[in-house]
Amino acid sequence: MRSPEYAFEEPLVELRRRIEELEAYPEGSGQRKEIGRLEKEWMRETRQVYSGLSRWQKTLVARHDERPHALDYVSALMEDWVEIHGDRAFADDPAIVSGFARFRGRSVAVIGHEKGRGTKERIRRNFGQARPEGYRKALRVMRLAEKFRRPVLTFIDTPGAYPGIGAEERGQAEAIARNLIEMASLKVPIIATVTGEGGSGGALALGVGNRVFVLEYATYSVISPEGCAAILWKDQARKVEAAEALRLSAPDLLKFGIVDGIIEEPLGGAHTDTAEICRRVGETLEKALGELEGMSPAQLISERGAKFRALGVFESE
What's the pLDDT at 183? Predict the structure, then answer.
């Protein structure tokens, strides 16, 4: 059962259910006309609902169960995918997938958070919350990409790095910090795309890119609204207020210069049309790769460094 917080989506879900029921019936008189009427109503209602989403509601859309994950983008956009497992130090972390593939004629490295589908798969992948071995696996693939001069594409979608005792004992903070240092000086193009939740250092550990993009209803912040509310006010019930204060939505991120562009989602969010959002992400990545291909390693590093040093700079009146 969906959380009551998704009440804003219920009328849209009901309309889609009625359309699907009619489509399952044998063709009859007036059926197509009624389907067409309901589809127009769904589009009208969806535009109205999604044009007025609060930052908290956008957070819920970013967490939607059916939203495409890293492996969906790999399946739709990549060819000759070869996954790399393990960090050669402790274990393999299924919360992060990584490997090499061909993307529209280019050989690339691909790294992303993977939340999984269904309860069993989500538990195995720890709901996209990576442990240190996940970040070390990602770094292993980045170093291989640098060695063989392959651009790195990352897909970010995590509530944050896993905060369990075992993860802390194995050096969670060091693993994240190491990735930040190494990505800052990597000699190949890095393009990061926030596809769902971009939570804290667990997201940033894959986010130090020459280009950083965010999907229209994705979020990117130093902490989740619930965590922020718990720390500031000792009350998670104030998560809606925290989401507004965090300014974590795509327009906020673009305004503050944290991302380089927003990838528009299909009407009703990425979960309504996986094929279309994958196509749009693919076009954005292809264009960005074209812009970065002519840059030397020194230029890539210099540009990347300048980009991240500029974050947080402001002038007081």
Answer: 96
